[in-house]
Specification:
Length: 392
């Protein structure tokens, strides 16, 4: 009996130790499986272009305008008399000077009318001379008592009638001479031919358009502004315009404001004078902004403000995580960020200077997402030193 106990005790000890070891191994495997089943939260790495630090900027309040370009000075050469076009020496794109002869109408009819008027005037002049001599003779006869004063009065009346007839004939001669001179087509202003509306050989009536001349040295943008916005526009304000076909933006100044509204739309026409620039043409479409006012404010790019909820918000980075912050919005305008003019909006509440927020380039990011800020490059900082947009 003692001999059996001698072998049983070590065996039980070995079995107990094996059980403990097996249990420890099982628990370790369970922990490892749990660790594999619950992966670590993903970290979103941000670039320097995805974040910015809020700081006060000089916000430029602007008004968006658009419209077609129009030459300040333009003229249409019309036929002043009805005749056949004998010659027309200019076409679209040709440059002309003020007073330059650009065409000729057929003058055959007006040459004969002028001769007719001249002959009528000569006849009236001869009749006037006869009436004057008769009046002088009758005055001498009255003085000698050979005729009565009644005969003298008749001579005076005849002389006055002859005088009026001659003056009328002379006026008709001048009208005929002017009609003949009007057959010459002359450029009224210096510029470029934009339209040729008639051809040699055609017979045109009075006031029929023949060519149009535009002066490209002065170009304006004719923009329609809503009644609620026109109150902030004054003469002398500057603007930056993007013109179709031109790579570089154009500078402009508010030159005039129409005192009346347009019927139907009630919009007010505002005229912006563009600085001379190669490539400007009448009729090109332009769009841009008028600078209304400037103020220093805490701003953020318009694209950084999210509006998919009831209240607008921005995504701020706080303690390594994204935090949703509802913000109040103020004025909209433009400011310089990273050396470029960008559309900005004022933050009136919900954020303060020094906060790091995500820009629109970061895309859709959930609240609470763990993020990693760029290490090699500082986030975009809207510094006050670079806040003022360049003036046009």
């Amino acid at each position: 009996m003692k001999r059996w106990m001698k072998w049983a005790v070590p065996l039980v000890a070995v079995l107990a130790l094996g059980g403990f070891v097996a249990r420890a191994i099982k628990m370790k495997k369970q922990d490892e499986a749990a660790a594999v089943g619950a992966p670590a939260a993903p970290v979103l790495e941000l670039s320097a272009a995805d974040v910015m630090v809020l700081r006060p900027l000089e916000l430029t309040r602007t008004l968006t305008v658009s419209g077609g370009l129009k030459a300040v000075n333009s003229a249409v050469v019309k036929a002043k008399v009805a005749a056949e076009i004998k010659s027309l020496t200019v076409r679209e794109g040709d440059s002309v000077k003020a007073g330059q002869v650009i065409g000729q109408l057929d003058t055959t009819e007006y040459d004969w009318r002028l001769k007719q008027a001249e002959q009528s005037a000569a006849s009236a002049r001869a009749q006037l001379d006869i009436a004057k001599r008769a009046l002088e003779n009758n005055r001498a006869l009255v003085a000698q008592g050979f005729i009565s004063s009644t005969g003298l009065e008749t001579s005076v009346s005849n002389e006055a009638a002859a005088q009026a007839t001659w003056q009328s004939a002379a006026a008709a001669t001048e009208i005929a001479r002017k009609s003949r001179a009007d057959s010459v087509l002359v450029a009224p202003i210096s510029g470029v031919i934009s339209q040729r509306l008639a051809q040699p050989g055609e017979r045109v009536g009075v006031d029929v358009k023949i060519v149009e001349v535009v002066d490209l040295s002065r170009i304006e943008l004719e923009a329609a502004v809503a009644p609620e916005d026109v109150g902030g526009v004054v003469v002398g304000q500057t603007a930056r315009l993007s013109v179709d076909g031109l790579a570089e933006p154009s500078s402009a100044t508010v030159a005039r404001i129409n005192p009346s509204t347009q019927s139907g739309t009630r919009a007010v026409l505002v005229y912006l004078a563009l600085k001379p620039q190669p490539g400007l043409r009448q009729g090109l479409f332009a769009r841009g902004t008028i600078e209304l006012a400037r103020k220093s404010a805490l701003v953020v790019p318009v694209a950084a403000v999210r509006i998919d909820q009831a209240q607008p918000y921005v995504l701020a980075v706080q303690n390594g995580k994204v935090a949703l912050r509802s913000v109040g919005l103020g004025l909209r305008g433009e400011a310089v960020l990273d050396g470029r003019v960008d559309s900005m909006v004022e933050l009136t509440s919900g954020a303060q200077a020094g906060d790091t927020v995500l820009r629109g380039t970061a895309g859709a990011v959930r609240d609470g997402t763990v993020v990693k800020l760029p290490s090699g490059a500082a986030p975009a900082v809207a510094s006050a030193a670079s806040a003022a947009p360049p003036k046009p």
